[in-house]
UniProtKB/TrEMBL annotation:
Residues 1-48 are annotated as: Disordered. Belongs to the DprA/Smf family. The gene is dprA. Residues 20-46 have a biased composition (Gly residues). Gene3D superfamilies: 3.40.50.450. Residues 8-19 have a biased composition (Low complexity). It comes from the Bacteria. This is DNA-processing protein DprA. Residues 131-341 form the Smf/DprA SLOG domain. It holds the Pfam family DNA_processg_A. It comes from Streptomyces noboritoensis. InterPro entries: DprA, DrpA_SLOG, WH_DNA-bd_sf.
Length: 432
């Protein structure tokens, strides 16, 4: 069944809660993530009731809410929605929802009463989007590493298959108020990764995030934007064109249902999804208190690669990155070095070395003779031979070699360094 398929009929939140019973979705509290959530593992995919309940719960549960995640793991989506929409039954049960205050539980119930999942699914379908949840073929299994903080479901817009694209993906994140250097590095890394066949994941925010997305798109590559709002909400407004392009060529991802707007806490929680989806997180410019560092620390906790791009030691916008680099993060300067870390065995960055000068190609004995010539003026063969610790005959032969190569000139009976030293380019690039 497609990710967004549900039966129509205008069911309300209360009807979502009433379609199941405890026996249909319950399991012991110690069961693994997904074991009690409508049985997708057993059935091969979530059913209509499971999907509709999860769509409703995205209006009830804030991203990253581990307490609600434990309820979901324990009771399943259908039963949890039933309990939240039937408080009178929940109060009499032998197994009530615990771990939160009465006021907070009442807040969950108010949200559940106002949820209308079929309206949200219809809104998304009109935009060409879809809703996926655990057990769907498109669900990225690496999100299960988040445990009880795993998303309830994901609202998607765009033609790309999220699971397949996330298999070879790298997050590139950084400061919103970045410097020109940060914007340049974000775009360069985004383009470089795209050219090497990697999907660039970021948050569509101003600054480094937007630069990374644009770099990937400019290179004809693939990019995923994980939003802190609904997939139909453009934020920031200045990125309307960019977000529209990603929806057409890549995929927009959100935990929040259509119409929901971002908040500071939602930005923070969005970062855990970016970290979990990807093989590694690259941070380009970040202050000590930066959401990008939250993404990097999430990546570290999840066992993903944590990577930093250095900046000026005097720049406060690079201070957070440098702190990461003093820890367990790896330092990189280009896309090839990122791929060496996150890629397969043998995906090595090219060796780094300085330019090869003509003098470097001389035989050791010839180089010693060249070094024996004075910086100014002339010298006889005998003087040169003595300085080079060799015979006059050997020195004369080496001098003629150096003369042929343009290093020295003969002046009467003496020798001197060439007035116009041989100059060549460092290396030939691009096979030219």
């Amino acid at each position: 069944m497609p990710g967004g398929a549900v039966r129509s009929g205008g069911s309300t939140a209360g009807e979502v809660g009433s379609v199941g019973s405890v026996g249909e979705g319950s399991a012991g509290a110690g069961a693994g993530v997904g074991a009690a959530e409508g049985g997708p593992e057993a059935s091969g995919g979530p059913g209509d009731r499971e999907r509709l309940a999860r769509a409703a719960l995205t209006r009830v549960i804030e991203p990253g809410d581990e307490r609600a995640g434990r309820w979901l793991r324990t009771y399943g989506a259908v039963e949890l929605m039933r309990r939240l929409t039937s408080p009178e039954d929940a109060e009499d049960t032998d197994d009530p929802l615990t771990g939160v205050s009465a006021a907070r539980l009442a807040g969950y119930r108010r949200r559940a009463a106002g949820a209308d999942p079929e309206r949200d699914l219809a809104t998304l379908a009109a935009l060409g989007g879809r809703f996926i949840c655990p057990g769907d073929r498109e669900w990225p299994g690496q999100l299960d590493d988040l445990g009880d903080a795993r998303p309830v479901g994901l609202w998607l817009r765009g033609p790309a298959d999220l699971r397949l694209w996330a298999l070879r993906s790298v997050a590139v994140v950084g400061a919103r108020a970045c410097t020109p250097y940060g914007a340049h590095m974000g775009a360069t890394l985004g383009a470089g990764l795209a050219e090497k066949g990697w999907v660039v994941v970021s948050g569509a925010a101003a600054g480094v995030d937007g630069a990374a997305h644009r770099g990937a798109l400019a290179a004809g590559g693939a990019t995923i934007a994980v939003l802190a709002s609904g997939v139909d909400v453009v934020y920031p407004r200045a990125h309307a064109g960019l977000i529209g392009r990603i929806a057409q060529q890549g995929v927009l991802v959100a935990e929040l249902p259509p119409g929901d707007h971002p908040t500071p806490s939602r930005f923070v929680q969005r970062n855990r999804v970016i970290a979990a989806l990807t093989r590694g997180t690259v941070v380009v410019e970040a202050e000590y208190r930066s959401g990008s560092l939250v993404t990097a620390r999430n990546a570290q906790r999840l066992g993903r690669h944590t990577i930093g791009v250095p900046g000026p030691a005097t720049s406060g916008l690079s201070a957070g990155v440098h702190e990461l680099l003093r820890g367990e993060a790896a330092l990189v300067t280009d896309a090839a070095e990122i791929v060496e870390l996150v890629g397969e065995m043998g995906d090595l960055a090219p060796p780094r070395r300085g330019p090869v000068l003509p003098r470097d190609l001389l035989a050791p004995a010839t180089a010693r003779v060249l070094d024996a010539l004075p910086g100014h003026g002339e010298a006889t063969v005998g003087d040169i031979a003595r300085e080079a610790a060799t015979t006059p005959e050997e020195a004369l032969g080496r001098l003629y070699e150096l003369h042929s190569l343009g290093f020295v000139e003969r002046e009467g009976g003496g020798w001197r360094l060439a007035s116009s030293p041989l100059r060549t380019s460092s290396t030939r690039r691009g096979g030219a």
